[in-house]
Amino acid sequence: MEKKTKSGKILRIVISVLVAIAVWLYVDSVKAPDVRVKVSHIPVEFSGENDALEDKGLMLLSGYDTTIDLTLKGPRKILWKLDKSQIRIVVDTSGISDTGVKTLRYSVVYPDAVSGSQIKVENASAFTVTVTVGKLSTKEVPIECEIVGNAADGFVTGDLVLDPAILELHASRDELVNISYAKIELDISGANKTVVQAVGFTLYDYNDIAVENSNIRANVKLVQATLPILMQKTVPLKLDFVEANGSTMEQVKYKIEPQQIVLTGEKEQLDGINDILLDTIYLQDLEDSQSKTYDIELPEGVYAGGDVDKAEVTITVSGVSEKTITTSNIVFDKVAEGKKAQLSTEELAVTLRGLTAELNKIKPENVRVSVDMSSVTENGSHTVPATVEVTGTNSVGAKGNYQVVVEVSDASAAPAE
Q1: Within its chain, how far is the Cα of 86 from the centroid?
Q2: 10 Å Cβ neighbour count for 93?
Q3: CA separation (Å) from 110 to 113, 328, 337?
Q4: Residue 74: helix, strand or coil by DSSP?
Q5: Nearest to 131 by CA among 107, 109, 99, 108
Q6: What does the alpha-carbon distance between residue 397 and residue 247 come to, in Å, rounded to a whole number?
Q7: Which residue of 41, 46, 79, 147 shows the fewest CB atoms closer than 10 Å?
Q8: Residue-wise over 347-378: b if at least 16 C-beta within 10 A, else e?
Q9: CB 228 within 8 A of CB 158
Q10: CB neighbours (10 Å) of residue 329?
Q11: Residues 15-25: tens digit of each pLDDT
Q12: How far apart (Å, rounded) are the C-alpha atoms in residues 173 and 213?
């Protein structure tokens, strides 16, 4: 009996709770009772100030820093999802046409997701905004930048860029007359890459005394300062030499002046530069002695310290000679099947280069010319590249490129009489 009594009591409690929840949900969703929300310190925005007023030569001298407190009333389900930070107070200044003290009404603008028609302003700290309108004066002043701290060790600073470089100020003539310049501070302590910061500015008079005047307004609130932080790296200047038989580095001496240069640039770029290549030189083309001036070409954004932009190169070659030998030792390779080839001339003059002592031993029979006919399949006269090989030594080679004129005909054709 006691157990049944307890069970019944628990059931009645559960039913009561459910009924209460149902009633609350009904009242909240159907009856939608109103609630109140307070929103404080909403800044006033002035539409038309930067165009309509300026076009008339007018400006706000006071009142533009006004804030409004609101007490809003409306359905709980609307006000609870209202983002207070998105509520705006907007005053239209386009109707102002002369100077003096003006009292203006404002509009409350709610976020797009909220229906403003269901919200009522029950109370406000003020229902109008009072402003003072004066004649607009404009003055441009330079912006100076004070660098604070030093870049990381091994890094130097480049040229500072400010955006804007000139500050445009708006206020009454009397308030602008003593303003001389604006100054910003840029902290680069320990920087190892380009510093880009948007920083506020301070106005100064002609006695270098800071001026604090909220009536003076500028065309921007922040100045973007960009200061390259550059790495310095010393790298050698370099020549690439291409050797050949009879033309090796053993017979070559060269000098580059300067031997190395100091590069300045972004760290990421300089990390990939270990030398600067001036030229690629084929040893076969060298004379006994030559000098040449090279422009030092650097990647974009990399600069040479000391304004070094040229290098002087001197090259000398010793113990090497050249001579011309005429040879008839010419053979054909890979003649097409069913074809035959015949030279227009039986001999070819070849220029040889190499160690003088070895070159003097070379005879015509040491020079072999090979003509590759693999690309020739049609009858007629053809100019074909020829490869020259010098036998009996590794210290002598042919200089330059050679071609021969070959007459191609069918192998079965009768020989010309």
Answers
A1: 36
A2: 22
A3: 8, 100, 92
A4: strand
A5: 99
A6: 8
A7: 41
A8: ebebebbbbeebbeebeeebbebebebeebee
A9: yes
A10: 15
A11: 776 766 665 55
A12: 13
What Rg value do the Cα atoms of the chain yield, rounded? 45
Max distance between CA atoms of the chain, in angstroms, equals 143
Give CA separation, 32 vs 4, 115, 120, 262, 390, in Å. Answer: 40, 15, 15, 77, 106
Residue (of 203, 236, 207) closest to 218 by Cα position: 203
- Written as six digits, the tokens of 289 are 């002695």
CA distance 124 to 70: 4
CB-CB contact of 356 with 317 (8 Å): no
Distance CA 180, CA 208 (A): 8
Alpha helix ranges (H) inside 83-217: 173-176
User: Residue 182: what pLDDT?
Assistant: 97
Rounded to the nearest angstrom, the gap between the alpha carbon of residue 383 and the centroid of all alpha carbons in its chain is: 51
DSSP sequence for 93-106? -TT--SSEEEEEE-
Collapsed DSSP state (helix, strand, coil) of residue 188: coil
The Cα 213–Cα 222 span in angstroms is: 17
**Shortest CA distance to 154 belongs to which of 270, 260, 307, 296?**
270
CA–CA separation, 179 and 241 (whole Å): 65
| pTM for this model (two decimals) | 0.53
Examine the pLDDT at 33 and tell me if it is beyond 50: yes
CA 294 – CA 281 distance, rounded (Å): 13
d(CA 354, CA 247): 6
CA distance to 86, 119, 124, 125, per residue, from 40 (Å):
12, 16, 9, 9
Cβ contacts of 186 within 8 Å, gap of 6 or more: 145, 146, 147, 148, 160, 195, 197, 199, 225, 227
- pLDDT at position 248 is 87
Closest to 321 (Cα-Cα) out of 357, 291, 280, 293: 357
Torsion 403-406-411-417 (CA) sign: negative
Q: Are 308 and 234 in contact (CB under 8 A)?
A: no
The rounded distance, in Å, linking the Cα atoms of 396 and 401 is: 15
Strands 107-109 and 128-135: unpaired
Chain CA centroid to CA 37, Å: 49
- Token duo for residue 152: 């990381």
Whole-angstrom CA distances from 208 to 55, 182, 184, 211, 220 are: 33, 10, 13, 9, 22
Asked if residue 65 has pLDDT above 70, the reply is yes
